[in-house]
Amino acid sequence: MSPLSPLSSVLLATAALTAPLVAHPASAAAPARACTLPAGLQELSGLGMSVKHPGVLYAVNDSGNTPQVFAVDCSGATGRLRATFTLSGTANTDWEALAVGPDDNGVPSIHVGDIGDNFAGRAEIAVHRFAEPDTLADATVTPATFRFAYADGRHDAESLLIDPTSRQLYVVSKVLGAKGALYKAPLPPLSGQVNTLTPLRAGPAWATDGAYSPSGRSYVMRSGGPFGPNTGYVQDPAGNRLAEVALPAQPQGEAVAYADCTTLLVGSENDRQIWRVPLPTEATPGC
To answer: Where is the signal peptide (predicted)?
Structure first.
């Protein structure tokens, strides 16, 4: 999501009236500061934790920025840029999500979701995928690109999830003041053609990101300010709600990833602080 437009002042008033309230978010240890992202990630829109490099997360900026994925060492209070990967043959139309998960052969891969569509003007969206590098060094990579269209019309979306067990890809639509939907991709998606995303079940209002637990036993979808509650909704693969988790208040809560199966990492546009959010026990099946 880009910085707030003049229309936002009107939408903000509407959102305050229509955004769902969270009555009893699950309690766990208090959130703690994880790291501060390096300069250049002010428009953060997606996060994913490395499988191969401990303490490293991958991040992307949203629309209008360079088609690059940034590898950041978040093991200390000040994040350190370790590598920048430039995706050849792509453009950052509206990169709104990033997920790290297996490809069709089980190889750990970085998936970049070019899935934003603020004005419902895109007939197709795309996901770019490349294998997670063994070495963290600046490089140009050539991703596989998968094209998608929704079975029920055009939607805005900022959430891309990969089930680490089944390798299933999901997208969650983002709607102001009403529930979105979780969409399921074909398994596996095919390059060279348009893959159809089919609705599976309801998602939260104003879903700004999502991620699958490394255990494969749960996933989280988040909302965030200014148009939705700063809340993570943790569910099992069948869609049963396990917990609602309070997230730190940030200007534009845009990103969530699992640090491990017991802890989330969350971030925002216009705020380079990444937070660590411990999950309550009921939200950590399989851990």
So the answer is: 1-28
